[in-house]
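Reopening this ticket.

The earlier resolution said the output was attached, but the attachment link was broken on my side. Pasting everything inline this time so it's all in one place.
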Amino acid sequence: MEFWFSERHTPHVKMSIRVDRQLYSGKSEFQRIDVFESPEFGRFLTLDGYMMLTEKDEFVYHEMMTHVPLAVHPHVRDVLVIGAGDGGVIRELARYPEIERMDMVEIDPLVVEVCREYLPQTACCLDDSRLRIHYEDGLKFVRTCQDCYDLIIVDSTDPFGPGEGLFTLEFYGNCFKALREDGMMINQHESPFYAEDALACQRAHKRIVESFPISRVYQAHIPTYPSGHWLFGFASKKYHPWKDLNVEVWKKRNLACRYYTPALHRGAFCLPAYVEELLKNVE
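Inline output:
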């Protein structure tokens, strides 16, 4: 008998992955957490039945969330990461020795606990001495911060349930205040392909444009996310995402990436016409 995990992307579309076994199933006060093992994608994490990451393609998401801003901003020392309980963003940030402090705000301690045990590929740097984990609501945490960070990475779940508050105008405004005068914010921006997801993209982009003087959107291909076409938001007080890209400095780091390159960095901001139209309609 075959077992399959299925996630509904629209009322008419779903994605299914064959499962060898279920490694973990539990429920926190916030959500249901499951870890499965599959022959094609390795281990994968779901929250409330929605795919969060797989061992096979998580590198795309986490590299694009971290290396894009760090190839632009010339002196990131203090970083705030909201969400990211799986540890993938922290793993990539930990590769930069000049980063002095990483504050990770994760609302659900059980997510971190489960990922430490079952997803060590992503959770491998959660004991980094520069990291402080705060188990609280990211929306409330950022309200208390002012002029504290060079970079904020919002690695949130989808804009409903525990992650809903991380897509509001209030939240983006608080992020702006929490950043230093040349700070920047990166957020996951959903997929532009299906109608309901496209509306979420528009709402988030409209609110970020209202909060930051520089706001651009970039893309990546992530096979297990809805439609495989995923967007990220780049919001900045000062630096432009490709005009201020310093290729030579980034190359001197000798960081081996599986997805990110400086050439791809520029190309990622070249959006398809239908996405450009989608975003212009709310700018």
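Reporter confirms the inline version is readable. The longest strand covers residues 179-188. The first helix runs from residue 58 to 70.
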